[in-house]
Amino acid sequence: MDPIVKVLDFVDHYTFSYMERTANGGRQGPLFVFVTGPQGSGKTFTSKAIVDHLSKKYKIAGASIDDFYLTHEDQVKFSKTFPKNKLLQGRGLPGTHDITLLTRCVETILKGKEGFVELPNYDKSLCDGAGDRSGFRKVGLPLDVFVLEGWFLGFTPMLSRHEIDSHHLLQGGNDMVQVNANLLFYRDLLWGNPEIKSLGIVFEADDINNVYQWRLEQERVLRKTKGRGMTDEEVKKFVDRYWPCYKLYYEDLIKSENLGSVATLTLGLNLQRKLFCIKDRCIE
What we know:
Blueprint: H1 3-20, E1 31-36, H2 43-54, E2 60-64, H3 72-81, H4 99-111, E3 115-123, E4 132-141, E5 145-149, H5 161-165, H6 173-189, E6 197-205, H7 210-226, H8 232-256, E7 263-269, E8 275-282
Parallel strand pairs: 1-5, 1-6, 2-5, 6-7
Antiparallel strand pairs: 3-4, 7-8
Helix pairs in contact: 1-2, 7-8
Protein name: BN860_07250g1_1
InterPro entries: P-loop_NTPase
């Protein structure tokens, strides 16, 4: 089965059920759809397909957690603030986003009042591949559904330094303490927020090392279409900064099957992004 077909069947079913509750006064705020998986696994493509599909019936908008990265100027300042933390030298990990902007947008969407929300756009090809914010887009409110995709959505922060050390990280052990603390905020605002009713869509790689090849493919397309972006060597170093997070959180995310507070769909993908397993877990 085409993974997109399964995803659309999943969101169709649960979105319809959620919207039915409106008539009985049981629905509060829009339904969030969280899409997560390793870089290059197909999150952006899938999120766009969901938005295009559901827009025929519902008021819907989508974004990536990447859209909320700090501006290039602010990222440079942020990196200099923590010069000894190698994981925060450039965009990517928890803590390198505009937290104030992210919070304001999520809270505005949740309130569901008439008006609009301004969602940021981020262009990864700018600044020689370092990336920068490229503007904003207005989205009318209230929404029925909001789709958010991101590579670390659903990761569960460790509770202590001992837990982090127990994973025997080959790199980033000390630096991960700060990243882990940053992750707590994202969890509490998004997938761990009791005010948000959500569906979760998780891409499970048969081998997490696939992320290197997937990310290379993405960047080569970017260089071909926009004429700028990271070199293959820069992509390798870029993904290396993410590796401690994958080692620390990714396996637990896959095993838990609880990204969505309503239901979670897990799709297993091989290197060619072909489906090898499907797991559908309803929580409510």
